[in-house]
C-alpha cells in the first residue's frame, strides 16, 4: 500500500496537465510566411510535441516526489508476548462414550479446535494421554499444525490403557517450564480418575504451582459411561457408573489457582472453553509500529532524466514552427 506524506502537492498535477496538454500557446514570433521553412521539410508534426510530453511528465514526476510517496509495510510488534497454553487431552477408551454426540473425544477435539482459532497470538502445545502421556505438538504459533494433529487423534493414539493424570500434567509442565511468557496455563480435559503412571497428580500440581502454571481442569461426561462394542456384526452398548474423580480435578485446579469445570454435554463444554477464553486474555502494550519506505528519491532521479530528455528534444532536436 502506498501513502503520500505531503499529499497536497498533488494539487499541482492538474495545473501541469492544463499548461502542457490543454492550453494552446501563442507564438512569440510572427512571420509573414512559413512556406520557406515548410519547404525545407521542417513541418510541425506530432513528433515535435514529444519533447513537451517529456517535460510535462518530468514535472509531474517531480511533483509526485514532493508529495513523498511511501510504501507501507506490514505492521510489526516489539516485545509481543502472548500466553503459552498446554492443551492436555485424555484419549483413553472411555472417551469413546456416546453420551456425547457422536462421542466425548470427538466433541472435545472440535471444541479445542474452536478455542485455538480464538488464540491467534498464543503459543499452544498439544499433549495426549491414556495410560501414559506424550507431547504430540510442542509449543508453537503455527496453529494449523495443532489443528491438523487434533484431527488425527483417536482413542488408539496412546497404546497403554488407563488414565495417567499425574503423568499428563508432568509432560505439560515440561513444555511450559522454559517458557518466558507472562502467563502460562494448562487446560486438562479428562473423563476419568488417575489410575496409571508413576507420577502422583498432587506432586505434579505442586510443581505446577512452583512454576507459576495455572491449570484449568475440565471433567467431561454424564454420570454414565456408554461404550459401543461390536459383537457378531451388531453394536452393543456397555454402561458403567461414575468414573470421573471430580474431587481430584478440583484439588488440582485449587492448588494451581485455576478453576474446575464440569461438562455434562457438548454445549456446556463449548461454554467452558468460552469462559476460559475470556479469563485468559492476552494483553499487549501499544508498541506496534508501521515501517515506511520512501520512494521520493527514486522519483527525483526519474524526473531529472525526463526533464533533460524533454528539454533536449524540444529545444535542440526538433525545430518548432509556429
TrEMBL record:
Residues 84-276 form the VWFA domain. The chain crosses the membrane at residues 6-22, 53-71, 295-313. PROSITE patterns: VWFA. The keyword Cell membrane applies. It comes from the Bacteria. Keywords: Cell membrane, Membrane, Transmembrane, Transmembrane helix. Pfam families: BatA, VWA. InterPro entries: Aerotolerance_reg_N, UPF0353/GerABKA_families, VWF_A, vWFA_dom_sf. The keyword Transmembrane applies. This is Ca-activated chloride channel family protein.
Amino acid at each position: 500500500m502506498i501513502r503520500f506524506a505531503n499529499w497536497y502537492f498533488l494539487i499541482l498535477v492538474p495545473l501541469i496537465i492544463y499548461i502542457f496538454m490543454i492550453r494552446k500557446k501563442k507564438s512569440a514570433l510572427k512571420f509573414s510566411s512559413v512556406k520557406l521553412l515548410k519547404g525545407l521539410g521542417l513541418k510541425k508534426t506530432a513528433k515535435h510535441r514529444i519533447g513537451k510530453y517529456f517535460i510535462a511528465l518530468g514535472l509531474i514526476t517531480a511533483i509526485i516526489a514532493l508529495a513523498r510517496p511511501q510504501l507501507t509495510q506490514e505492521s510489526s510488534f516489539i516485545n509481543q508476548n502472548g500466553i503459552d497454553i498446554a492443551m492436555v487431552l485424555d484419549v483413553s477408551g472411555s472417551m469413546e462414550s456416546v453420551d456425547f454426540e457422536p462421542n466425548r473425544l470427538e466433541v472435545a477435539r472440535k471444541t479445542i479446535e474452536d478455542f485455538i482459532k480464538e488464540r491467534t497470538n498464543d503459543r499452544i502445545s498439544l499433549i495426549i494421554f491414556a495410560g501414559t502421556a506424550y507431547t504430540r505438538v510442542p509449543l508453537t504459533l503455527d496453529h494449523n499444525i495443532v489443528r491438523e494433529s487434533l484431527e488425527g487423534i483417536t482413542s488408539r493414539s496412546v497404546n497403554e490403557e488407563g488414565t495417567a493424570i499425574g503423568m499428563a500434567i508432568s509432560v505439560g509442565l515440561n513444555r511450559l517450564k522454559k517458557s518466558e511468557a507472562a502467563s502460562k496455563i494448562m487446560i486438562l480435559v479428562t473423563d476419568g480418575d488417575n489410575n496409571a503412571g508413576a507420577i502422583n497428580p498432587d506432586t505434579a500440581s505442586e510443581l505446577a504451582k512452583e512454576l507459576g502454571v495455572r491449570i484449568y481442569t475440565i471433567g467431561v461426561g454424564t454420570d454414565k459411561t456408554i461404550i459401543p462394542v461390536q459383537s457378531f456384526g451388531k453394536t452393543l452398548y456397555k454402561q458403567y457408573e461414575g468414573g470421573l474423580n471430580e474431587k481430584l480435578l478440583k484439588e488440582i485446579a485449587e492448588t494451581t489457582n485455576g478453576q474446575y469445570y464440569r461438562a455434562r454435554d457438548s454445549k456446556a463444554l463449548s461454554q467452558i472453553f468460552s469462559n476460559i477464553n475470556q479469563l485468559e486474555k492476552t494483553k499487549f502494550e501499544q508498541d506496534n509500529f508501521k515501517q515506511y519506505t520512501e520512494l521520493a528519491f527514486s522519483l527525483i532521479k526519474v524526473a531529472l532524466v525526463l526533464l533533460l530528455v524533454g528539454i533536449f528534444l524540444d529545444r535542440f532536436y526538433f525545430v518548432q514552427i509556429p
